């Protein structure tokens, strides 16, 4: 019996008196009438001050190198940190590193000179100038900038040349903006590359998404074929030199043969034989290098990665945000919760709730 009485007493102490809470809220209900309309107006002013933005998504599926029968297993095992050898495991620029590549300063600054134009006009400008001068900002942000320009000194950049090793303050700020607007993600299971570009103009968003895709493909292609292209250039150089030597040897042989056509001296025949042998030797070297050059060209083609575009860039019709209605409702909900907590605090009910918890 004593234990039951104690349990009933604890339940009575821990039970919430909803009637008292409702009575406390009703006594100060005039606060809702004052606070909620003001909060609604402020939320609308804030939401309407935010510029619209659009989102474009591009998806790529890269070709994974597979030189041996174990390379596909190596690509799969590398996802779990296991090295099975083979080219796929030794590939220095695996697709999971593409986001890090796009976050590099070199890649972001390479987007500065991309030519863009807005949908509503024909003015062509660089992406750098567009982000610097044509971005819409909330009215309060413009007011803060204007106030800062009165009290602060405006930075003047004498040298506008982009040097990734030493960026100016403005160039660094633009690179940080690009870092937020251009995002790359790679699915570790399917290795599908997703490029998301967000911008205030739908045409520029689509243009930049396509440009980022092309530049990423070019960078990866250049990296993957660097050694093969270097070998090809060296083979082409040797081929050109061999061709010139063969041409000279052939011309010397032909000139000597024409000049000594009617002579039957042994010295003449010996000289002609030497020239013929030299010509044949140079031809063999020239022919061998021609075959090596064809193999080097095939090697470049073999190492050139292939990308399958799963989703191309397209100009969006609808904006991606901001969703102003949700923002206003969320703000009103938070204000309602805050006002209720304030009323319960003033009526002394909040301490009871905390004590019960």
Mean pLDDT, to the nearest integer, reads 81
Distance between the termini: 27 Å
Q: Please state how the strands of the largest beta sheet are arranged side by side.
A: 4-5-1-6
| Backbone CA Rg | 37 Å
Number of strands: 6
Number of distinct helices:
15
Strand and helix order:
HHHEHHHHEEHHHEEHHHEHH
What would the principal axes of the Cα set say about the shape? rod-shaped
Oligomer: single chain
Q: What is the domain tally?
A: 3
Largest sheet: 4 strands, antiparallel
Helix-strand category? alpha+beta
Low-confidence stretches: 67-73, 78-90, 151-155
Strand content: 5-15%
What percentage of residues falls in helices of 4 or more residues? 55-70%
Describe the structure.
The protein has 357 residues and is an alpha+beta fold. It folds into three domains: 2-48 and 326-356, no CATH class; 53-224 and 307-319; 229-302. The protein is 63% helix and 9% strand. It contains 15 helices and six strands. It has helices at 2-14, 18-27, 30-49, 71-78, 87-90, 98-102, 105-110, 127-133, 139-151, 169-181, 202-224, 226-259, 266-303, 324-346, 349-356; strands spanning 54-62, 115-117, 124-126, 182-186, 193-199, 307-311. The strands form two sheets. Strands 4-5-1-6 form a four-stranded antiparallel sheet. The protein has a two-stranded antiparallel ribbon with strand order 2-3. A hairpin with a 6-residue loop joins strand 4 (182-186) and strand 5. Helix 3 (30-49) runs antiparallel to helix 14 and helix 12 runs antiparallel to helix 13. The longest helix is centred in the last third of the chain and has 38 residues, at 266-303. The two termini are 27 Å apart. The model is unreliable at 67-73, 78-90 and 151-155 (pLDDT under 50).
């Amino acid at each position: 019996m004593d234990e039951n009485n104690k349990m009933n007493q604890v339940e009575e102490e821990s039970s919430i008196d909803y009637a008292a809470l409702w009575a406390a809220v009703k006594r100060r209900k005039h606060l809702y009438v004052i606070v909620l309309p003001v909060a609604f107006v402020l939320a609308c002013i804030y939401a309407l001050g935010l510029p619209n933005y659009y989102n474009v998504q591009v998806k790529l599926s890269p070709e994974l190198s597979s030189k041996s029968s174990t390379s596909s297993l190596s690509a799969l095992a590398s996802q779990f940190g296991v090295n099975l050898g083979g080219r796929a495991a030794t590939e220095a620029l695996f697709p999971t590193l593409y986001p890090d590549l796009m976050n590099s300063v070199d890649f972001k600054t390479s987007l500065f000179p991309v030519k863009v134009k807005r949908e509503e006009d024909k003015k062509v400008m660089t992406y750098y100038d567009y982000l610097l001068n044509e971005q819409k900002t909330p009215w309060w942000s413009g007011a803060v900038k204007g106030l800062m320009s009165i009290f602060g000194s405006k930075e003047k950049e004498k040298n506008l040349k982009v040097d990734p090793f030493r960026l100016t303050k403005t160039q660094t700020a633009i690179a940080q903006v690009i870092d937020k607007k251009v995002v790359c993600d790679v699915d570790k299971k399917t290795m599908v590359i997703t490029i998301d570009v967000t911008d205030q103009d739908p045409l520029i968003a689509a243009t930049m998404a396509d440009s980022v895709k092309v530049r990423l493909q070019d960078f990866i292609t250049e990296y993957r074929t660097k050694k093969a292209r270097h070998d090809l250039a060296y083979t082409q150089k040797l081929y050109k030199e061999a061709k010139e030597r063969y041409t000279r040897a052939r011309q010397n042989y032909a000139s000597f043969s024409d000049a000594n056509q009617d002579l039957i001296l042994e010295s003449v025949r010996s000289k002609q034989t030497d020239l013929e042998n030299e010509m044949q030797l140079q031809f063999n070297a020239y022919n061998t290098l021609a075959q090596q050059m064809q193999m080097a060209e095939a090697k470049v083609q073999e190492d050139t990665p292939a990308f399958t575009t799963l989703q191309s860039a397209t100009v969006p019709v609808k904006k991606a945000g901001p969703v102003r209605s949700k923002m206003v409702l969320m703000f009103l909900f938070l204000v309602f919760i805050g006002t209720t907590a304030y009323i319960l605090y003033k009526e002394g009910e909040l301490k009871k709730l905390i004590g019960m918890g």
